[in-house]
Structure formats: C-alpha cells, structure tokens
Write a structure and sequence with these properties.
Elements: E1 4-19, E2 24-40, E3 44-48, H1 55-62, E4 70-75, E5 78-79, H2 89-94, E6 95-98, H3 112-122, H4 128-141, H5 158-170, E7 176-180, H6 188-205, E8 208-213, H7 216-220, E9 225-230, E10 233-239, H8 240-245, H9 250-257, E11 309-310, E12 316-317, H10 320-324
Parallel strand pairs: 3-8, 3-9, 6-7, 7-8
Antiparallel strand pairs: 1-2, 1-4, 4-5, 9-10, 10-12, 11-12
The structure holds iron/sulfur cluster.
The site of iron/sulfur cluster (SF4) has 14 residues, from helix 10.
C-alpha cells in the first residue's frame, strides 16, 4: 500500500471577480496558487496560515465542495480532481469534513440523530435499526449520550455541537477527515476538550486527518507534520518537532513568535509583521511575502519566486535565503 493517501500536484483555484452592467470578469482571485502536498496514511497534517491564505479553499477542494481550476489530486491512487456526479459518490464516503462553525453546520429543525445518520441513508444503509445503532455508537464515541438522538441542535452547547459534527463526519468510517478550523468558534476552555477528542479518535480509528487552523499553537498538540500556507502557497513543510524547534521561513518564525507564553516574566522575541496579508487579487511579484519580510533582499526577493525546496530530512521551505544557507541565522529585524 502506498505511503501517501493523498497526493496534490500543482493545484490551482481561481475565482473570477465580475463587475459592471454586463457582469464581465474584471479580475481573478488566486486563492490557491500551485500547491504540492502529500498527506500520509494515518497521520495528522496541520495546515496553518492567516485568514485569506487559501487554506479553507484547499480543504474544500479536497472534499470536492469546490472544483480545482487546474492541477491534480490523487486519492488512494485515483485521480479525483475532476470527477463529477455519481463518479464522486464512493469518494465522498471516504472523505468527510468537520466544519468550522458548529452553530450553522447543523440544521436547527432536524434532530441530531437524523443529522448524523443522513450519510448512512445516502450511502445505502436502508435498515433503520442499523442506522439507529450506528448513531448511538457514534454519540458514545464522541462523548455524548445515546439518548441525545432525539434532541435538537439548540439544546447543546458549542462544544457538544462540534462533537455532533465530528460524529456526523465519522459515521461513514472515512479514510480521510478534514477538520476545517474545528475549534476556532469555541471557547478556549472547550477547545482543548475537542482537540483531545479528535486526537484520541484519530489514534483509535487510525484515521488520516487534515487539521486546518490559523494558529500554530492549536496544531502543535495534534499534528505529526505541519504545512504553513501564505497567499495560496505552501511556504514551509516539516514534522512538528522540527517546525517548532527550528522554523526556517520568516513567516513561520513570525507566527511562532505570536503564540502567547503563559509565563509573563519569560523573555520573548516577538516579531510583528508589517502590514496586512496582500490581496490575492493582486499578489506581489517575486516572493509573495517580500513586502512583509524582515530579511527580504532587494533585487532577488521582489523579482524571483521561490519554490518549495527540500533542505534535507523532511524539511521543505520556499525562501531564497534559507535555501541558500543550510545554517539559518536568527532574524533580528522587524
Ligand atoms: Fe523573505 Fe526573500 Fe525568503 Fe521571501 S524569499 S521569505 S522575501 S527572504
């Protein structure tokens, strides 16, 4: 069996911007701009970046809620990039998503038992008793009571609703679960409970998990590897320990320096990034990060686009200066 469950190559997603009386296309949003990424069987891959970096678009392409503009996605050896209609059905059973907002992702007029079992019905489990049993098992797995099947979403807290969302994603026994910012709408006290639950379930069921977040602190707890995304591209990818111990891309360093430290007396070297993330309507030339990068080199970074390059081991980075020098020097500017 191949090591990678998913292989993404040169994936692009563009959205047209229309305007004027004739509703003509006046611009293009480059939401995902040439992503190469593998997801290994049984791993949790964290995908991190600021709002607007394209991570949610990438997640939605992977569950085929969106069609890619170009590029390929191989899932378990099969190209599913442009499957449509009935051809997508077996794939949908194997890839499920947990949405960010546990409030809007559940139908308020449908009992949770019905919401969770909907996938079973769609995928041909016609026996009502079997569906009922599977829903009860799932509710127990995510830490809720089987007697909750007849309740409505408003009778649950945010954390409990997210558990229901997880149960709904798992009921079809998928191979890949994409968790799209599953804790960002929850109180901090509840976030850890949901993260622990996902980690336990991932280990117990041997799932492959893509965990999308805007915060490196959240993915540290749960990921085996972490990919950092900026303006539609992966800029750094490595295993979790290497990323947190020895980040190489200046953007990753800035994200790491923004993680709060519980001890106020501990000295820290906080790097404040200048400006906002540029618009994907008009990304800067060269390295997309150069207008905000504290070590950008004129004549190189603003002209030449860095590719994601291997630096030995499992570490890949898209930065001219860090690829040129194997021993990265610490950043002092910014
Ligand atoms: Fe900064 Fe240049 Fe590296 Fe881009 S390529 S991250 S601008 S140093």
């Amino acid at each position: 069996m191949a090591e990678n469950l998913v292989e993404i190559r040169d994936l692009v997603k563009q959205f047209p911007v229309r305007g004027g009386l004739l509703h003509r296309q006046v611009a293009t949003v480059n939401a995902v701009a040439g992503v190469d990424l593998d997801i290994r069987r049984g791993e949790t891959l964290g995908l991190v970046g600021e709002s607007g970096c394209g991570k949610t678009t990438l997640a939605r392409i992977l569950v085929r809620l969106l069609e890619p503009t170009s590029g390929t996605i191989q899932f378990d050896g099969q190209d599913m990039s442009h499957l449509r209609g009935n051809a997508l059905k077996p794939f949908r059973k194997r890839v499920q998503i947990v949405f960010q907002d546990p409030y809007s992702s559940l139908d308020p007029r449908t009992q949770v038992g019905e919401s969770i079992s909907e996938g079973l019905r769609i995928h041909g489990v016609s026996d009502k008793d079997e569906r009922h049993e599977r829903v009860k098992e799932m509710l127990e797995l995510v830490g809720l009571q089987p007697r909750h099947t007849g309740r409505y979403p408003h009778e649950f807290s945010g954390g409990q609703r997210q558990r229901i969302g997880i149960a709904r994603a798992l009921i079809l026994k998928p191979d890949l679960v994409i968790a799209d910012e599953p804790v960002s709408a929850l109180d901090v006290s509840v976030q850890a409970q949901v993260l622990n639950l996902l980690k336990e379930i991932q280990g117990e069921l041997g799932l492959t998990l893509l965990f999308v977040a805007h915060n490196l602190a959240v993915v540290e707890h749960i990921s085996n590897r972490v990919a950092v995304m900026y303006l539609g591209r992966i800029v750094e990818l490595t295993d979790r320990d290497t990323l947190y111990r020895n980040p190489l891309h200046p953007y990753t360093e800035a994200l790491l320096s923004a993680i709060p430290i519980p001890d106020p007396d501990r000295p820290r070297d906080r790097q404040i990034l200048a400006g906002e993330i540029p618009s994907p309507l008009d990304p800067p030339p060269g390295c997309h990060f150069h207008p905000r990068c504290p070590i950008a080199q004129g004549g190189l970074c603003d002209v030449k686009d860095p590719r994601l390059e291997p630096l030995g081991g499992n570490h890949q980075v898209a930065c001219h200066l860090r690829v040129a020098s194997d021993s990265a020097s610490p950043i002092t500017g910014g």
